[in-house]
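Entry 14: structure prediction run for Transcriptional regulator, MerR family. Input pasted below.
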Amino acid sequence: MTYSIAQAAERTGLSVDTLRYYERIGLVEPPARDSGGRRVYSDADLTWLDFLTKLRLTGMPIRMMREYAQLRHRGEATAGRRKQLLVEHRADVRARIAELQACLEILDYKIDNYDLILRRQPGGAPEEATA
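Run finished. Output tokens:
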């Protein structure tokens, strides 16, 4: 199946401008063109864009994404370096998750503390509202 740039943007959650930017900086190969010269994206293109989106959501720098994309373009001979990039990034993601988990625990503690305070006040929050 093929998709116009607008359809690709809708399916990936990226803007048309972002798709063009990713093409310009080499994150995606220039897509095929239809007879009118308009970009035509394939399912494989959308799968790659979805992966790039995941990398961005996990905080991978564009510089590292570009290196990964360039290596991918060069084929299986670069599998070792691509794996290394992902392993290093995974360690960063796990560290950020641990930091966020610690922050979440502090928020939970503070919220629970306010529930206790409110229950001690006259007319405080009913028990079922704090559950």
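Notes: The mean pLDDT is 94. Will compare against the previous run tomorrow.
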